[in-house]
């Protein structure tokens, strides 16, 4: 069992942990759906989560009954228009869009000398952090284009620890998705989940929202777990 005193760094997922950009993906895909005549539903939006841009487009075209109506070049143009709209929405982010408690947490970690890294599948993480006004705290962002495997594979979390010169067991990983928590645990890091404890049951500790994610609460959980093992 890792002791809190062993922890030297924190590795953060981005979406759902630091800010919420998932809604921007839905808004951008909805514009594409409207353009091709697909009826937008909550079920369609759900099917697009966690898959590639071109796969998402194919699902929307199938929903419109137009999977054979567009050339490959036209499909690429539709997908490109989606990304442009997504980035336009990302550029509306301000420091007010940082999730509750996260700005204070990041400041307290920086004050405490902890090293910070971002482990996100998003290629736009640097842009998001810049717009949120906190990029100075995160000089180390894993480039997802360098990865061979996505979450729940531990590769991104191992690389994040390496980027800040630490061993995985010296790091706390923070995630809001079950696949991410699984990756953190497989990397050998302490896993903090944000959200539903039943969904994130593999995590070492779970907070219902980012507002409860404080350095003192993480320390209290880890100290309690260590004393329970003794």
3D structure, described in words:
By secondary structure, the chain is α/β, with parallel strands linked by helices. It is built from 9 helices and 6 strands. Strands 3-2-1-4-5-6 form a 6-stranded parallel beta sheet, with helices on both faces. The longest helix is centred in the middle third of the chain and has 19 residues, at 72-90. The chain is elongated and about 60 Å long. The mean pLDDT is 93.
Helices and strands in order:
Elements lengths: L8 E4 L9 H15 L5 H6 L5 H11 L8 H19 L11 H10 L3 E4 L6 H8 L7 E2 L13 H9 L7 E5 L2 H10 L2 E5 L10 E3 L7 H15 L1
Parallel strand pairs: 1-2, 1-4, 2-3, 4-5, 5-6
Helix content: 40-55%
**The CATH superfamily title of the largest domain:** HAD superfamily/HAD-like
Task: Report the C-alpha radius of gyration, rounded.
Answer: 19 Å
Give the ordered list of helices and strands.
EHHHHHEHEHEHEEH
Descriptive key words:
6 strands, 230 residues, alpha/beta, 2 domains, six-stranded parallel sheet, 45% helix, DNA polymerase, domain 1, 10% strand
């Amino acid at each position: 069992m890792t002791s809190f005193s062993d922890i030297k760094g924190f590795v953060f997922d981005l979406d759902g942990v630091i800010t919420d950009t998932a809604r921007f993906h839905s808004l951008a895909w909805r514009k594409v759906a409207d353009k091709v005549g697909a009826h937008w539903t909550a079920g369609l939006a759900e099917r697009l989560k966690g898959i590639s841009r071109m796969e998402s487009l194919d699902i929307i075209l199938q929903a419109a009954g137009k999977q054979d109506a567009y050339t490959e070049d036209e499909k690429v143009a539709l997908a490109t228009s989606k990304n442009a709209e997504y980035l336009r929405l990302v550029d509306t982010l301000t420091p007010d869009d940082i999730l509750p408690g996260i700005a204070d947490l990041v400041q307290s970690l920086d004050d405490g000398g902890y090293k910070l890294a971002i482990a996100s599948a998003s290629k736009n993480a640097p842009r998001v952090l810049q717009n949120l006004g906190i990029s100075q705290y995160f000089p180390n962002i894993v480039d997802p284009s360098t990865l061979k495997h996505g979450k729940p594979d531990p590769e991104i979390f191992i690389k994040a620890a390496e980027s800040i010169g630490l061993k995985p067991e010296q790091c706390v990983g923070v995630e809001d998705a079950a696949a991410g928590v699984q990756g953190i645990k497989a990397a050998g890091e302490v896993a903090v989940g944000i959200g539903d404890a039943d969904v994130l049951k593999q995590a070492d500790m779970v907070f219902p929202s980012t507002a409860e994610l404080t350095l003192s609460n993480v320390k209290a959980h880890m100290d309690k777990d260590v004393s329970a093992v003794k």
